[in-house]
Amino acid sequence: VCFKSPLTNAWSESRCGTDFGPDLKRAGYDAVIIEDRSEKPVYIVINDKDIEIKAAEHLTGKPISEKIKMIRDELDDPKISVMCIGPAGEKLVKIAVAMSDQRAAGRCGVGAVMGSKNLMGIAVKGSKEVSVAQPEKLKELIKKAVKAVRENEVAAGFKEHGTTGEMVPNDAAGDWPTKNWHSNHWGKAEKIYDEFYNNKLVKNHACYRGCPIACGRIAEVKEGKYKTPVHEGSEYESLSAFTAFVLNDNIEAAIHATYLCNEYGIDTISAGAIIAFAMECYEHGIIKKKDIGDLDLSWGNPDALPELVRLISMREGIGDILAEGVKIASEKLGKGSEEFAIHGKGLEAPAHDARSGKALAITYGTANRGMCHIHPLEGMAYDSGKFDFSLAKYGLPDPNTVHRWDEKGKGKSVKILQDGLIIPDILSICKFFMYGGLNIDNYADMLSALTGWEIDGWELLKVGERVTN
Ligand code: SF4
User: Which residues form a coiled coil (predicted)?
Assistant: First the structure.
């Protein structure tokens, strides 16, 4: 989804898994442009050529899962792809997301943009064949690509441990922002992850049909005050935001807060970052207990997490200021709170620490959509993970010969990495396959077979450069 972000006030984009994108293509559309604003809440139904705008007043205020179910029930189609906003998007919370099933187009406030248009959701179904220039060749290339991913060790690790498993090595490597960035490691990741893996993880899950990695996590809290139904969403960024960011080692509270974010429809990364910011303001007396209904915002208080998620999502009490994101909230609160607002261009920082390596620091400083670790590049993967993504032939120095804190030449390396790693974003392919055995040469071959163009890796890098700039 591409839009002007209410957080950064600039171009932004956000993406998620599920079959929504492929179904839109099967309906015959590469993109849908939404202009203007409806007087009343509506949702759009796209069924091949038929497009209908339906009244949606009865959907307002409903949590995401209920809204999606109501739309499917109304359309009498339990399988139709639906992307919708939650109550937070309706209230123009600036960190609101658009959800497709349990996957979030999470960053930069796309949900607030949909809410500003009174657009509750879009349902799409398509029955067309997608035309392919060289179908047999494409089939062969995809078969090879899937085999390469299935045989790749990194991909196998993602399948077994998901992104959440990265907590442990990242904590050790100083790539785990802790206590609103007071530190870049905590030393508690192993304990937290073990508890998650052994007691809360139900199974892994693919976010769209056919992914050979299936890194998604399905989790559950069976009982207790943080009881949470079986759901998808306990990923690395989300759980880090509700543990290390806020010094909370109660994994059940973190899972519950993540689940609530998905139901209200707010970005888990920004939500955790905003709560960490609020806790620091509380510590310094900028936010006072008497002003927040006696809520205890001490570091690590697990009970504060679900309540603050609710207050932010519903714009209630202190949540109304926090719903603006840390940059604007700190400008409103003043009293030096700007020092505690960790963001780039207005986008809250994710769960990777720029102190772990210079490539990530440069990425945070230059990324188009603000302080983003993955669009276009996970800089720490080069510096700490020693991934070269098969870009050596395009001039990228071997990461094993470069120290993570080296500065000389790092800018040029990041440029090559940015141009290369934005390619999956442009093609709308999951970036994790570039960790799991695929590279831009594979994508150039597939794109050529798909479109009939003759394109190679060099040409793709040029496209990447144009898009990045
Ligand atoms: S590897 Fe990518 S496409 Fe597959 S489940 Fe994970 S996020 Fe989705």
Answer: none
Q: Where in the chain do CATH 3.60.9.10 domains reside?
A: 2-125
> Ligand 1 centre from 159 Cα, in Å?
9
- 272-296: per-residue pLDDT in tens? 999 999 999 999 999 999 989 899 9
- pLDDT for res 183: 98
Q: Which CATH class is domain 357-468?
A: mainly alpha
CB atoms within 10 A of CB 19: 19
Q: For CATH 1.10.599.10, list the domain ranges present in the chain.
A: 357-468
Query: Percent helix, strand, coil in the chain (nearest 5)?
Result: 45, 15, 40
So what's the pLDDT on residue 378?
85
Domain with CATH 1.10.569.10 in the chain: 163-348
- The CATH topology of domain 2-125 is Aldehyde Ferredoxin Oxidoreductase;  A, domain 1 (3.60.9)
Average pLDDT (139-167) is: 96
Cβ pair 267, 248 in contact under 8 A:
no
Q: How far is the CA of 312 from the centre of ligand 1 (A)?
A: 29
Which amino acid residue places its CA nearest to atom 3 of ligand 1? 430
CATH 1.10.569.10 fits 163-348, yes or no: yes
What confidence tier does 447 reach under pLDDT thresholds 50, 70, 90? very high
The full DSSP string for 101-160 is TTEEE-STTHHHHHHHTTEEEEEEE--PPPP-SSHHHHHHHHHHHHHHHHT-HHHHHHHH
Nearest CA to ligand 1 atom 6: 215
